Amino acid sequence: MREERHPGQAKIECKDITKVFIQKGKQRVHVLDHISLDVKENEFVVILGPGQSGKSTLLRIIAGLETPTEGHVLIDGREVKGPGPERGLVFQGYMLFAWKTVLGNVEMGPKLRGVPKKERREIAAHYIHLVGLDGFENHYPHQLSGGMKQRVGIARAYANNPQVMLLDEPFGQLDAQTRYFMEKETARIWETEKRTILFVTNNIDEAIYLADRIVTMKGKLPGRMHVVYGVDLPRPREHTDMAFLKLRHEITEASELTL
Amino acid sequence: MVDIANEIQQQIQERRPLTLAMILTNRWFLYGVSMLAFFLVWDRAAAARVFSSGLPRPYEVVLQLWRMMFDPLAGKSLLGHVWASTQRILIGFTIASLVAVPLGLMMALNRYVNAIVKPLFDLLKPMPPLAWISIAILWFGIGETSKVFIIIIGTFVPCLLDAYNGVRLVEPELYDVIRMLGGNRRHEIIQVCFPAAFPAIFAGLQIALSIAWSCVLAAELVSARSGLGFIIILGMNLSRPAMIVGGMVVIALVAWGMSQLVSGLERFVCPWKREIDSR
What is the C-alpha to C-alpha distance for residues B189 and B175, in angstroms, rounded to an integer? Predict the structure, then answer.
């Protein structure tokens, strides 16, 4: 039974998330320490931190692929107990199904739910169009460039109509130019079909360009939240804008990141 | 023509006048030269009696094969013998793969099946299939059954092993993807595990096929009334080297043909596999 969501209640609520990994039966790796985070509906929140700061683990916990040692995650008031289609996840390594075409990949979510063929083709076609891959429906992943593969990943997650979108350093494997392009595309896609988005990255520019709010993580394990920045700049944003650069300077000073 | 994203790379062939240098460096020309040289050396070595009368000249082999096509040898024409060997392989290979591949998949997916089967398998795996010939004849006599049995033994191991490894080498995050899209364990297996393992399974089938050929030959060399191994043995007994070499040539051709069929099937089932360009 769905709990009634009160106006003002956040879409995603993380309360006191703590995660300790036990490796080889003995070593305890304390990855996250009492993280509490709220994300409002249709908000674009970016988690920014250097490598090894626990941010991917946090995202995986919210996705339901890991369970927190302490604390819990609520989405729309319901506790997250495992992976599920209300959360769409875009992976850093694309993780496309090599044996399926672009169309086959994007329609996988509806297919698993038993949506009839004609309908799910339409849904897939809509999202393929949204990410700008018209004409590539029958291509196989190995025929696509990195940026295109990631767009398929985004379309695949979107096509399942999730409540929230989770993106785990999705552009980490792309070159700088493609990365800028994909950031613009992400902003465009989000503006066209709004969703609640939680985006993980280690790149300050990317964070400021995309986010409504930036949550920075400290650089050492266990991961703790550092400073939260609200980004009020009008969209579409310019990397060379004064306000953009000021914020960039502020974040760089406060954290260990230089990018 | 190769499609990559938006690029379509075409091989632009300029029309240039044919020069001698172009001919001499052309790939097909060089292939032809190499083959011609091979046959020439063979012919000269045979005529010079390098292995006394043991090496037949190429035309003798062709003549012998031609004769065998129409004059029955031990009751069968050449094609009859080809079918005898092929039939044994098909039966043995089919039985073995139909059991081994699902078993390998189940071993990789289920802990308990793995625990039961793996020790037995590891025990029997290192033994060469040909070591089983004597006991196969003891159990099943010198007829068809013993030969098919050897083929089953020989093809079982690679089929199972490659199916098993095919599953174990699947990228684990792909299962995460299916789970996030709302799939359950059944979807994990059918939608991710099987398709991802197909290329490995086909690789196993190819290896199993070539092992099957050596198995059938060995079995026929020991005891047979028909088949390509039988032709080779007969050639030895009758001191007809042309027959021996002829048998070898036919074996190579048929084995190659079957291997091409499996490759063709693989291209049909796995259209996403990138072809390694043969240059």
Answer: 9
Give the containing element (helix H, strand E) for B7. strand B7-9
Report d(CA B262, CA A117) in Å as an integer: 32
pLDDT interval class at B260 (50, 70, 90): very high
CB contact under 8 Å between B182 and A89, yes or no, is no
Domains of chain A in start order, with CATH, are 12-86+162-254 (3.40.50.300), 93-145 (no CATH)
Q: Give the residues across from A89 on adjacent strands.
A: A166
Q: Where are the beta strands (DSSP E) in A62-195?
A: 70-75, 78-79, 87-90, 164-168
Nearest 5°: phi and psi at B56? -80, 155
ipTM computed for the complex: 0.86
Contact B220, B76 (CB under 8 A): no
Domains in chain B: ranges and CATH: 82-226 (1.10.3720.10)
The distance of A174 to chain B (nearest Cα, Å) reads: 15
Question: What are the tokens at A83?
Answer: 């992976």
User: SS3 for A69?
Assistant: coil
Distance CA A116, CA A108 (A): 12
What's CA A52's distance to the chain center, in Å? 17
Q: Is any Cβ of chain A less than 8 angstroms from the Cβ of B58?
A: no
Give the SS3 label for residue A50.
coil
**Counting one residue from A and one from B, how many pairs have CB atoms under 8 Å apart?**
72
Our CA-based measurement puts residue B162 at a distance from the nearest CA of chain A, in whole angstroms, of 18
Strands (E), chain A: 12-23, 27-39, 44-48, 70-75, 78-79, 87-90, 164-168, 196-201, 213-217, 225-230
Q: What does the pLDDT look like over A44-101, one tens digit per residue?
A: 999 998 887 788 889 999 999 988 888 889 988 888 888 988 899 999 889 999 999 9
With 0-12 / 13-18 / 19 or more C-beta atoms within 10 angstroms meaning exposed / middle / buried, residue B40 is exposed
Buried b (16+ CB within 10 A) or exposed e, A28-55: eeebbbebebebebebbbbbbbbeebbb
CB < 8 Å to A112, chain B: 178, 181-183, 187, 191
Kindly list the residues from chain B whose CB atom is less than 8 angstroms away from the CB atom of residue A150.
none
* B1 at interface of A, judged by CB pairs closer than 8 A: no
Q: Judge contact between A148 and B5, C-beta under 8 A.
A: yes
pLDDT value, residue A222: 82
Q: Which of B3, B177, B184, B189 to mutate to test the interface with A (most CBs of A within 10 A)?
A: B177
Which whole-number Å values give the CA distances from B67 to B64, B72, B73, in the listed order? 5, 9, 10
Distance from C-alpha of B51 to C-alpha of B30, rounded to nearest angstrom: 29
Length of chain B equals 279
Cα-flanking dihedrals φ and ψ of residue B78, to 5°? -55, -45
